[in-house]
Design brief:
Elements lengths: L9 E4 L7 H11 L2 E4 L8 H11 L8 H4 L1 H6 L1 E4 L5 H27 L3
Helix pairs in contact: 1-5
């Protein structure tokens, strides 16, 4: 999916939905990761802005995204932790999703290349 989930994964949420505890709990459960929010108002575009800055600085070959956002992440507050059965429930679905996503990417490449 373009990222790797580890036991240390932290998800930083921003924008309007970041105040909805039900949504945040689902995100935490699906990704089996702790979810954090920060207090800046009108921050919906912040994630995109940080991604753009990351690419402008050379991407992962120059600086890890987690290092770039570390100052923001350090100030974030924990708002949701995975439920105890989250990994058993969503783990197999994440594996299936990754497989399906790879198939879509492969099919798109073939279509673009005229295969």
């Amino acid at each position: 999916m373009g990222f790797h989930l580890t036991p240390d994964t932290r998800i930083l949420v921003t924008g309007g939905a970041s105040v909805n505890t039900a949504i945040l709990q689902v995100v935490s459960d699906v990704f089996n990761a702790k979810v954090y929010t920060q207090s800046a108002a009108n921050s919906a575009a912040m994630g995109g802005a940080y991604r753009a800055l990351h690419l402008a600085k050379g991407g992962e070959e120059t600086i890890a995204f987690s290092d770039l956002i570390a100052p923001v992440a350090e100030e974030a507050r924990l708002v949701a932790s995975p439920s105890k059965d989250a990994a058993a429930t969503y783990g197999p679905l994440m594996v299936r999703f990754k497989h399906l996503e790879q198939k879509v990417v492969e099919m798109s490449r073939k279509k673009i290349n005229g295969e």
